[in-house]
Model the fold of this input.
Amino acid sequence: MPRKPEPHVEKRIIESALELIRQHGLGRLRVADVAREANTTVAMVYRRFVDRDGLIDATVAHFYERRIETAITRANELLERPAGIHLIDVVDALPLPDYKGSEKIQELMSRVPGLAVENSTFAIRIRRFLNDVTPTFEELIDRVVQRLPPEERFDPRIITVYIMNQMWIFNDLRGPYRISNAEYREFVLQLMTDSQYRG
Done:
């Protein structure tokens, strides 16, 4: 009698791969370690993802999708506040460049453009996901901007185009010259203030 497939095994494998990447980086990711962390077999990992590259592709796509979903959640949380929203609240809701494990996560994010060029299945998955969520995300950001006091409204493209397309790997590579969280917050706040958007 054939074994029944384990429920949620694919999700466990991806989450385990992501955690191992956070801890050790992409270059040290081993399928055997992922299988052990996910409490499954190496054969199951290969059955679900074919090879290590397939596992990395699925993990990168999952992480990227989750990152966008987190941005949507943060925008919704701002809109659910009963009190008014201020520009500093928007800046505080943005992801910061420097956090625990950021270098290893940025290594993962830096793979998105290359994978989209090299792997048509990956590109289709990301394109479909973005086509599904972009209208919602842009509408949410427009609503956030409209909830700001008129003198604090900014061009929403600062978030939907500029910030959502940042690759912090380049900041990480700058070593001691990289921008700090405080400098980044100050820069974004000034950028939004200077955009003079009143739409």
Summary: The first helix runs from residue 9 to 24. DSSP finds eleven helices and no strands in the chain.
